[in-house]
Design brief:
Structural class: alpha+beta
Number of helices: 17
Distance between the termini: 46 Å
Number of strands: 17
Radius of gyration: 24 Å
């Protein structure tokens, strides 16, 4: 978790290679070391550090170091009103240890947008609180209950380093912004949402890696967007447009046209008309079916994917009774492109429209139906309710299995879409269960592959479970599911 704790460093207007950490902020120390930054306690001689991280009580000691910048955990803007430093306050939500947002309180338009579009308002009282916060912040006031705060003071004012570096791609120097933090493992990417001066909606999204040397996800994301845009206007209209890529000291970044709106996951969790939500889900499902249709290639193109499933996926599940011939039971089918991570967290929705983001897991020639299973499994579980105790995140595998086995409110809707998609992809009914089984077996291993990259690039940050690891076991344990799954036929 230490890399998440140090994410506020990305708002600094200069690069950081040397840091001092005061007051026993051990997560900061560990995180900076994981990021390849030299860290000391400031007791030795030498040039001033690039940044000092300190609790509020040691602000005087921090200033004494003459660091280029100071990151202070707490609200102490007054301490910097005299002298060489210019300070701004960042509101971190929801916690300092693992924030999802950093909101610069001196930029009311971007902060108001973030509070409205990036807040989970699954209770009426949360809606009221969010509206009150927006009103107060628009007046330059700060609600005390909306902590925690970080104060960032710097001797040289300017935009964050990565934002300034995007000038070559057309980003003006006077953009406003807020910062979103990736909530997966330590390799998940952060992003600046960038607003043109005077605008109340973001125009660009600047994604960037937490650590240097992590270009793979950006390469794959670019390739995925190329696949989407090559599929024609119907598909491209719901995928971001890549503006360009760059890096700063080995930290990779990309700039995309922004997708304004709210994450579909938050939309489905917010109280509202079920039918309106259902229409949006079904519009996205139709687009997924069309993505498959417009990217069809020959069955022979799926050779590498069949080999991957045969050698890397199926053998890992022999203990569940998965037999080695499972892949061979899939008849020759047209290969299709898969987004391959099409959960509600990767869809941004606004007024009935949507954009599918983060294409770094794309597969260009793979089995049909997978994206539909994955998306509807997540979306219908949320549509059917996510607030009861039995709907805690750790219960996700059982909730998905219940949906596919016919025991959920939205099961008939799921089955209708499976029938429609199977017909569109010319998948024989007897092959659907096998394809679904391979889908969940593969996705249940994906976190393990991520954790191998995590161990290599950030050895001090522990692997993180993603919530879907248990679906394969639950799927194979249910007598109505597995390769013989047929209840969907109606």
């Amino acid at each position: 978790m230490s890399l998440h704790r140090i994410d506020p460093r990305f708002v600094l207007p200069h690069r950081v290679s040397r840091a001092v950490v005061l007051g026993g902020l051990e997560e900061w120390r560990a995180g900076l070391v994981s990021a390849g930054i030299e860290v000391s306690d400031g007791s030795g001689d030498g040039p001033p550090p690039d940044v000092v991280v300190t609790p509020a009580r040691l602000v005087g000691e921090a200033r004494y170091t003459k660091a280029r910048s100071i990151i202070l955990e707490g609200s102490r803007e007054r301490s910097f009103r005299r002298g060489d430093y210019q300070a701004r306050r960042l509101l971190l939500r929801p916690t300092r240890e693992r924030p999802t947002l950093a909101l610069p309180l001196d930029q009311p338009a971007s902060v108001s947008y973030a509070l409205e579009r990036w807040s989970v308002v699954d209770r009426p009282w949360k809606t009221a609180r969010m509206r009150a916060a927006r009103v107060l912040l628009s007046r330059g006031l700060f609600p005390s209950w909306a902590s925690p705060l970080v104060t960032v003071a710097t001797q040289v004012a300017g935009p964050p380093t990565l934002v300034a570096a995007a000038a070559d791609l057309g980003i003006p120097s006077d953009v406003s912004w807020f910062l979103t933090f990736g909530q997966g493992d330590a390799l998940s990417r952060n992003a600046f949402q960038l607003f043109r001066a005077g605008s109340d909606q973001p125009e660009w999204v600047l994604k960037f890696a937490r650590v240097a040397g992590n270009s793979k996800r950006f390469d794959n994301d670019e390739r995925g967007l190329q696949v989407a845009h090559a599929a024609g206007d119907v598909i491209a209209a719901h995928a971001p447009r890549l503006v360009g890529r760059f890096d700063v000291d080995g930290v990779d970044a990309s700039l995309e046209a922004a997708a304004a709106g709210r994450r579909l996951r938050d939309v489905l969790r917010t109280p509202g008309d079920r039918n309106v939500k259902l229409r949006l889900i079904e519009r996205i499902a139709g687009w997924i079916v069309e993505l498959g249709r417009r990217t069809e290639t020959s069955p022979e193109a799926m050779g590498a994917e069949r080999k991957r499933l045969q050698s890397d996926v199926v053998p890992r599940w022999s203990e569940l009774g998965v037999h080695t011939e499972l892949v061979d039971e899939v008849p020759p089918l047209a290969a299709v492109a898969q987004h391959n991570d099409l959960g509600t967290w990767n869809v941004v929705a606004d007024d009935g429209d949507f954009v599918v983001v983060d294409w770094e897991n794309v597969r260009e020639a793979a089995l049909p139906l997978w994206d539909l299973f994955y998306f509807l499994g997540d979306a219908f579980v949320l549509l059917d309710g996510s607030d009861a105790p039995e709907h805690a995140p750790e219960q996700l595998p059982e909730r998905i299995v219940r949906l596919f086995a016919g025991g959920a409110l939205s099961s008939p809707l799921l089955f209708s879409w499976v029938r429609r998609a199977a017909e569109a992809a010319a998948v024989p009914p007897e092959a659907v269960g096998t394809i679904a089984t391979l889908c969940w077996l593969s996705h249940s291993l994906s976190a393990g592959a991520q954790n191998m990259d995590l161990a290599a690039l950030t050895p001090r940050d522990p692997p993180r479970l993603h919530g879907l690891e248990g679906v394969a076991r639950a799927w194979m344990a249910n007598p109505a599911l597995g390769p013989s799954w047929s209840v969907w036929r109606g």
